[in-house]
Amino acid sequence: MTSRLNPYIQFKGNARPALEFYRDCLGGDLVISTFGDFGDPTAEGADGVMHGMLETPAGFTLMASDTPPGMDFKPGSNVSVSLSGDDTAELTGYWEKLSVGGHVAVPLAKQMWGDTFGMCTDKFGIGWMVNIAGSSD
Length: 137
Description:
This is Glyoxalase/fosfomycin resistance/dioxygenase domain-containing protein. InterPro entries: Glyas_Bleomycin-R_OHBP_Dase (IPR029068), Glyas_Fos-R_dOase_dom (IPR004360), PhnB-like (IPR028973). It comes from Streptomyces smaragdinus. It holds the Pfam family Glyoxalase. The protein is α+β, with helices and mostly antiparallel strands. The protein has one domain: Roll (2,3-Dihydroxybiphenyl 1,2-Dioxygenase, domain 1), CATH 3.10.180.10. Helix content is about 20%, strand content about 40%. The protein contains two helices and eight strands, in the order E-H-E-E-E-E-H-E-E-E. It has an eight-stranded mixed beta sheet, covered by helices on one side. Strand 7 and strand 8 form a beta hairpin. It is globular, with a radius of gyration of 15 Å. The model has no long low-confidence stretch (mean pLDDT about 85).
């Protein structure tokens, strides 16, 4: 897999209908995982979208999620740039450069879904998410 760059939109409890709307407008395949899929399915917010991805026939990729319980939703700053792929060295290099002088919200580390993930805001105030696909071992 090559590295990809695409927008990532954060919503406040309505990511699923938004992604379904975008699918209806743009076509394509929509895959949604909820917070409950990777944690306690009875917890508050478990039915919220932890990660949704729409891939269209035109080659567009749009990712989105609901704001996790306990995190602030900040309209106007709810779009980030997502870098993803499986080249650990390349993506780690991007992460190291993008996070210098900024704020790291989630350190680049192995996550419960098996990938390595980090989230930061660069020194210009732009949000970045880096996801390195886990090995298939």
